[in-house]
Structures are given as C-alpha cells and as structure tokens.
Amino acid sequence: MTTFAEATAVRPAEGGFLADLDPRWAVGDKLHGGYLLAVLGRAVSAVGGGHAYPVAVTASFLRPPAAGPATVSVTLLREGRTTAQYRASLVQDRQVCVEALVTQGALDDAAPWWTAAEAPEMPGEDDCVLLPADSPGSPFRVHILDVVEHRLDPSSLGFAMGQPSPAGRTAAWLRLADGSEWDPLSLLVALDPAPPISLVLGVKGWAPTVSLTAYLRRLPAPGPLRVTMQAAEITSGRMDETAMAWDAKGNLVAQATQLAAIRH
Amino acid sequence: MTTFAEATAVRPAEGGFLADLDPRWAVGDKLHGGYLLAVLGRAVSAVGGGHAYPVAVTASFLRPPAAGPATVSVTLLREGRTTAQYRASLVQDRQVCVEALVTQGALDDAAPWWTAAEAPEMPGEDDCVLLPADSPGSPFRVHILDVVEHRLDPSSLGFAMGQPSPAGRTAAWLRLADGSEWDPLSLLVALDPAPPISLVLGVKGWAPTVSLTAYLRRLPAPGPLRVTMQAAEITSGRMDETAMAWDAKGNLVAQATQLAAIRH
Predict the structure, then answer these.
(1) Domain segments of chain B as ranges
(2) Vertex A79, ends A74 and A80: CA angle to 5°?
(3) How far is A260 from chain B (nearest CA, A)?
C-alpha cells in the first residue's frame, strides 16, 4: 500500500523535481489523469511561493507516461498579490507527457457568499456499491479503485448489469483507502472518478482525457466526498464530463470539466 | 465598424504572429477574454497543421494587454493522427499577457451520438432585450456589445432594475453585429457573454477572468446562437461560470467554464 502523499512525492532535481509515478494510481497501464495533475500540483506547491494551494489547474494530456521516474519542470508566469500563475510540465524520456497551467492562491473553509450547488441527495455509503478493481468482462484492471474507494449510488450502476442508463450521470462516495483525509491535491484525483460516463452509456473501452480543468473552491472537511459526474454530449468521437465534489459537511469543495476521446 | 475577421487577423512576424488588438472588443479598457482566445486561436490555425479547428482551449490570464500591437507565439507540443496540441502565448512589451493550451482537431455538423444538452426554451429574439453598450450607472462602457449583439431573456434582466435574481443564470441570443455567421473562432467570444453572473446577483464591478476553458463541439449552423451561463458558487472572492451555446438548429456547438475573481 502506497499512501497518496508517498505516491505524489517529489524531490528537487536537475531541471525541476523528480517524481516516481506509481502504477497503482492507474487504469490498466495508463496512469490516472487526476493523479498526474496531483503530482504536477505537488511540484508547483514545492516551489514555495506565498500562495499555498492550487485554485485552477488545466492539463493537456500529450502522451501517456509510464510508471516510474519522471521530471516535473515548473515556470513562474506571474506572481501577484493574491495569486501566482505557473506552467508545469511532466517530462519522461525527454518528451513532455503532460503540460499544465496552474493558478495558486488561498483556500479556506468559509461559508459560501452565494451558492447554487447544493450537495446531491444520495443513499448513504453503506447503501452504495464499492466498485471492485477487477470486474468480470473488463479488459483491464482499474488499479485506482484499490487506492481510492468509490461507493457508487446504485442508480448509477445499470451499466454493470448490461443495462446502460441514458442519463449520462454518476454519483459516488469517495474515500482514500490509505485512511488520509482529502486535501486540495488529492481532490484533483477525486475530480476524475471511475467509471467514465461513456461506460455508463454502454460504450466499452478506454476514454483517454485530452484536457482536464479543475477548480478548487474550499478546504475540505474530514470524511468522505460526494462526487457527481455528468456528460452533456458525445459527438464526433469526443465526450465532455463535468464533475462536482462536496465534502462531508455538504459544501462544494471542487469542480472539473474534461474533454475525452472515445470510440463509439 | 471592424469585422470579427479583421479584429482577430494575424500576420507572420518575427517570433510568431503579429496581431492588432481592437479596443472595440473590450469591456471598458479591458480586452474581452473570449476575444483574446480567438486571436490566439487564429494564430494557432495559421500555423497550418492538418487539424483545422480548436476543439479544446484553456487560457490563463496573467496581465491585461492594452489595445494595439501584440505578438502571438505558437509552440507545437504534439502532433497526432486526429489532434495536435499547442501552447500559445500573447506577448506585449516582452511580457506574457495570456498563455493558452490549444488542442486542434476536426469538427463537423453531424447529429450527436448521445446528448443530454437540449437547447433551452426561451422567448424569441424579438421578445428579448438588446443590451446597450452604455447603461446608466455603469462605471464603464461595454464596447463588446457594439460588436456582439446580446438579446437577453427578460427573466435574466432583474439586475438592471435593481432586483437581482438569486438563480445565478442568464440566457441570451447572440449575433455578430458585422452580419457574419458564427464560426469556431468567434464561438470563443460567445462563450464569455455579458453580463457576468456576479452582476446578475447584484455585485457591481469588474469580474476579471483568471482561467477560461472552452470546448468546441460542432460547426455552427447559420443564424443566432442561444447562450446560457450559470454559476455554481461565489466564495472566497472567486466565481465559476459555465456557458453553453446552441446554434439556430438547436444543436450544442460549444461550452466553457471560467474562474473569475470578484470583490463582493
């Protein structure tokens, strides 16, 4: 068992930071997109400007990196009074695998000034279904489910019984299996939950992320997250997915959109 | 009157492309974020890889550029069979003002394979309210409304009569005032419509975009767009906004999310 903190650790090295990408934070042999964002975010935080947390992160996924050593380079683009903006690149074998734009700033746990994002009504954790990393008929092992427990609302589960739902939505409780509480970097993993909406709609196979954008809104309270994901449309081989995450107090803590390629 | 094509024109120059930023595509003296994205997109398209259209664009807004000359530099990050990914930077006075990640690919007008994004019901254009560039009490002129006609659903208009709506949503018909039809680059402007949701909620003042992400989904049919914008939460001085745009045939053509800074 590797903890989230261990799996995303970086240390200063020539050209930036050295990371050791962990094969357990993966779907099949493809490292998880949210996990790679978290490694990039760890390196940006390690640069140690006065701005503690990522508040907006976008990554272009260029080439899937392999598990093992990778370098993260970080470039400061602008430092202001309330935010700092960076470019960060994950490099392996001298090729950029992921390039990201990261805005760092302050986060707190204050009540919202205004919100339209009420936490979703869903069955309790015990009445939801823990997703297995191995499932019959899956062409690959979903290793990330060993390290991030997903308890899926049974109403999202039709696909697993061969009865895809046309709603294009999932809802789940998420916990880190290492027992640690959610923090702004691990929230980046939670914003890219399993399964992809394409699978829920009955499209088998991998849905590689082209671009993922995450906004961190609040420091999460201890306890499990509620995470919903909704697609708007699948067309011309591309799907959008919007994820929202609420903490155990029912406050919105993070949200994301991604564009993924699918073969339908 | 400058057309959209003229306002976003670029020509090859040392270090990339030269653009002449047009003060009419602005809110007060701040150039419009979607317009700046369109200039960056024009330069990426001018590089002339085999991938015709932007499909995913994210920009970090670092410093507001002034109207007038600016340079756009474009770096190819990866060229694949179906997409190419670029970094593009808008530079003025040797400082990067906007840095973007752009994925180029193919777009068509095929029917969606699956959609949950039905076009919104709203009154016809003649029953909506054309927003003026000058309005009583506004601290600045919203020049962009001279070049992009916004006809707002009257149900979104309470803020203008001093009666903010708590829904945090707007819906409008948009047309280019130069009479040209929407295309993938001008859609980038439509995805950052006026007014900001903060104003609809009663918060006066500028809401500068920190980061904006747009996904282009389909080639638009001729005719006006329907554009909705919805915020999820305003907290800790930041607001998210999600925009969706449908063409005159009622098909989803583009969507965007942005994170903006506000003083509430």
Answers:
(1) 4-107+118-261
(2) 155
(3) 10
> Taking CA atoms, what residue in A is nearest to B59?
A101
A52-77 tens-digit pLDDT = 999 999 999 999 999 999 999 999 99
Which residues in chain B are contacts of A215 at CB distance < 8 A?
211, 238, 240, 257, 259
Q: What is the pLDDT of residue B2?
A: 83
Question: Which residues in chain A land under pLDDT 50?
Answer: none
How confident is the model at residue A43, as a pLDDT? 97
Averages of pLDDT over runs of 10 residues in chain B (264 residues) are 94 95 96 98 90 96 98 96 96 97 96 95 97 86 97 90 88 98 98 95 89 98 98 96 98 98 82
Give the HSE-up count for residue B241: Cα atoms under 13 Å, Cβ half-sphere: 31
Q: Is residue B108 within 8 Å of residue B247, measured between CB atoms?
A: no
Distance from CA of B126 to the nearest CA of A (A): 29
Of A78, A101, A255, the CB nearest to B211: A101
pLDDT given for residue A1 in this prediction: 72
- Taking contacts as CB-CB distances below 8 angstroms, the residues of chain A near B201 are 114
How far A6 CA lies from chain B's nearest CA (Å)? 29
Q: Does A177 touch chain B if contact means CB atoms closer than 8 Å?
A: no
Q: Where are the alpha helices (DSSP H) in chain B?
A: 4-7, 33-47, 144-147, 184-190, 197-200
Cross-chain CB nearest to A232 (options B107, B108, B252)? B252
CA dist., res. A133 & res. A225, Å (int): 19
Q: Is B235 on the interface with A (CB under 8 A)?
A: yes
Q: Does A110 touch chain B (CB under 8 A)?
A: yes
Tell me if the domain spanning A4-106+121-261 has CATH number 2.40.160.210. Answer: yes
CATH of B4-107+118-261, one of 2.40.160.210, 3.20.20.370, 3.30.230.10, 3.40.50.2300: 2.40.160.210
* CA dihedral angle for residue B19, residue B20, residue B24, residue B28, rounded to 10 degrees: 90
C-alpha distance from residue B13 to each of A20, A157, A238, B46 (Å): 42, 55, 34, 12
